[in-house]
Amino acid sequence: MGLNQECFANNAQSILKQELAKILLSIVSFACSIENKTMNGVILLKQDSLHKNIIRYMNNPLNYVCGEWVQGNGGGQQLYNAVSGEVIGVASAKGLEFAAMLDYARKKGNPALRKMTFHERGLMLKNLAVFLRSYLEEFYTISYQTGATRADTWVDIEGGIGNLFSYASLRRKFPDEPFCLDGEGHNLSKNGTFMGQHILVPKEGVAVHINAFNFPVWGMLEKIAVNLLAGVPAVVKPATITCYLTEAVVRRIIQSGLLPQGALQLICGSAGDMLDHLTAQDVVTFTGSASTGLMLKSNKRVMEDNVPFTMEADSLNCIVLADDVTPNMPEWDIFIKEVRREITTKAGQKCTAIRRIFVPENKLEDVQIALSKALALTVIGNPLNDKVRMGSLAGLSQRDEVKGQVQKLLASSQIIYGSLDSVEVVDADGEKGAFISPLLLLNEKPLYGHEVHSVEAFGPVSTLMPYNSLDEAIHLSKMGKGSLCSTIVTASEKNAKRYVLGAGTHHGRILILNNECAKESTGHGSPLPLLVHGGPGRAGGGEEMGGVRGVKHYMQRVAVQGSPTMITAVGNVYQPGAQQQEGLIHPFRKYFEELTIGETLITAKRTITEADISNFANLSWDHFYAHTDHTSLEGTPFDKPVAHGYFVLSAAAGLFVDAKKGPVLLNYGIDELRFTKPVYAGTTIGVRLTVKEKTKQEKREETDIPKGIVKWYVQVYDETNETVAVATILTMVRCKA
Questions:
Q1: Are strands 87-91 and 77-80 parallel, antiparallel or unpaired?
Q2: What pLDDT does residue 551 have?
Q3: What angle do CA 669, 671, 672 make, to 5 degrees?
Q4: Fewer CB within 10 Å, N side or C side of the chain?
Q5: Do 317 and 484 meet the contact criterion of CB atoms below 8 Å apart?
């Protein structure tokens, strides 16, 4: 394995303790779930000495390295229960050879994933998500120690698993191949014998994910879902302070056996010199502070080898209450609720949390009163208590850091709600646990104070500020020098457009929140798998997730040039102008497996008549003047009444369809339909029908008909051999097997 031999000496005993602890935890949790009452879906577990000792053993997280669970070679960082302040374990990555880890991922995990198709990788993610859902209560039990409430943990754990489901469904956006085409082909020659096509192939390296502590599960799953779908393995390094929760999830992932060996490795502790062993084929993502991100991004190897580095930095995100909103409108209550939620969810430990609140100057006092009342309803304390709505910070060190940052903010602001020195908690010790009061600050001159636009307190802290016009609010939003997300609450379409176009350059995502979408909106701080997550400037300048866009981040784009026939052979998608092969059997008589890319049917021909045009107009009720009125054609491109485009396509279908019952089940749709030349009465048309692309469909039920989707390139031409219409027609075709 290339790992420090002394590190292995303690592994057998340590791993045995770990596994016994897991079993005992399951037994105790099950027993407690029977004995204790369930309140609002929260299982209240007994905090007896046995349970605590089990947790203590369990939270000595191991590293998953080169296919083995490995204990760090001494040293490390103590881990604490964020609620009680008790030591629950030690995490260490000392002695690990990071070069060996990366080499293992490249040589073992990467080839295995690259051989899989997008559809196979997507199904792997789907099955993994289903598997992890069966261990939710185990993950929740461990997560409470991070200070997170049930609602906080739902976002972290079930949100992360939901990300796996989302990317699993994206497999349908890709071909059933290990690679994919990127965009359309481009003809590069006069006679059509030379062309270019971009393709995407998985990188031959490893994705290195260095994450912050705010979401130990989501932070991992949101990233590996993307790189695994792309065909690239990952090494995950969560923040040490809550790595025990990440480790618990990785244990179950490895137990599932769903991932190829080398597809996922875990570091619970310092990443050491790992970045010094990167190559140009690797990809690094970082979530955390801008200063740490800059340090990592400046690594000599990262810079010299141009290693792709995506940073998602904690930013000074903002929300704007537009001047059209008054206290009697539903948008007012929506605004207050959104701000309160963003301050208290996860105790404000979110990279997307609202740090700056901009409101019209004439509504400043009303907002201050409403927000203070809303925050006062937040019950703080032990997240195991069903009355608690805000837990603790991730640790005492984090509380000290938040207080230090607030002191900097107080240079130009004042606290108008909450206290730095005391907090009332339920079922916990406010001093031993990492608890802090929600803090609402007021800065009355935001245009002149720089601290509020540059200092972030990573906790339940936000600053209220006035503005005089929407243009001023836009300017203030930009003073944060780039953020992950911003929200405007407004009922005015005009205000919404002005803000988006004005502030869009400085924010990665903008939510327009009003009464129409509030009930179904995921809220200001919720990144969505199919939308890009990231932001310019201070926010890191990168993008993550984003559906298909995110997958491409882990793939190499190659511009392939050659003849249409060669590009067809490489991409397995027919390119216009490529060689076509005529068969003796009508392609509609063939099963899905029997059809080959480039296989072509050249049909008989048909002459279009004036009666055809007139009859189609009467049948379709399409009496558009260009088809029916000889006297209205002056100033148009037409010399005489022209055939309906849809009639031309229908006539083409009449020529290429085989009428007998066969493997073709139905017409699935039409893409990229273009009418390129007028067809008049007297024109004779023919069709070339070519197999363009094939995608096998999954069976959802055992009783489903095995089938696939076949895309056909349809070229309709006239007696001069000029193309009059082109389209891609999709049919559902039965499989032979």
A1: antiparallel
A2: 92
A3: 160
A4: C
A5: yes
Q: Between residues 668 and 13, which one has the greater pLDDT?
A: 668
Catalytic annotation on 312?
yes
- The DSSP letter of residue 261 is T
Look at residues 261, 293, 300 and name the one whose alpha carbon lies nearest to residue 277: 300
C-alpha–C-alpha distance, residues 361 and 358, integer Å: 9
Instruction: Return the closest-CA partner of residue 501 out of 526, 523, 471, 469.
Output: 471
Query: What does the pLDDT average to over 569-596?
Result: 92
| pLDDT value at residue 91 | 87
Residue 7 among the catalytic residues: no
Tokens read off for 671: 């893409």
**Under DSSP, is residue 30 helix (H, G, I), strand (E, B) or coil?**
helix
Q: Which of 597, 592, 589 has its CA nearest to residue 733? A: 592
Residue 114: which H helix or E strand, with range?
helix 110-115
**56 pLDDT above the threshold of 70:** no
How big is the chain, counted in residues?
Answer: 737
Neighbouring C-alpha atoms within 13 Å toward the C-beta of 109: 32
Residue 177: alpha-carbon gap to chain centroid: 22
Name the catalytic one among 97, 222, 312, 456.
Answer: 312
CA distance 341 to 343: 5
DSSP H or E run through 371: helix 364-376
**Which element (helix H / strand E) includes 607?**
strand 606-607
Query: ∠ CA 669-674-675 to the nearest 5 degrees?
Result: 125
What six digits make up the tokens of 38? 């369930």
**H or E, element range at 318:** strand 317-321
Q: Where are the alpha helices (DSSP H) in 573-642?
A: 610-620, 625-628
How large is the greatest C-alpha to C-alpha distance in the chain, in angstroms? 95
- The whole-number average pLDDT for the span 59-66 is 86
Please, which pLDDT band fits residue 44 given cuts at 50, 70 and 90?
very low
Q: Which residue stretches of 427-518 are H helix?
A: 470-478, 493-503
Q: Which residue has the higher pLDDT, 156 or 129?
A: 129
Exposed (0-12), middle (13-18) or buried (19+): which is 358, by Cβ within 10 Å? buried
Q: Among 7, 268, 318, 351, which one carries the catalytic annotation?
A: 351
> What count of other Cβ atoms lies within 10 Å of the Cβ of residue 517?
12
Q: Which of 580, 579, 575 is nearest to 560 (CA)?
A: 575
How high is the pLDDT of residue 288?
A: 80
- Exposure letters 306-336 (e unless 16+ CB within 10 A, then b): ebbbbbbbbbbbbbbbbbbbeeebebbbbbb
Q: In the 3-class helix/strand/coil scheme, how is 219-259 assigned residue by residue?
A: HHHHHHHHHHHHCCCEEEECCHHHHHHHHHHHHHHHHHCCC
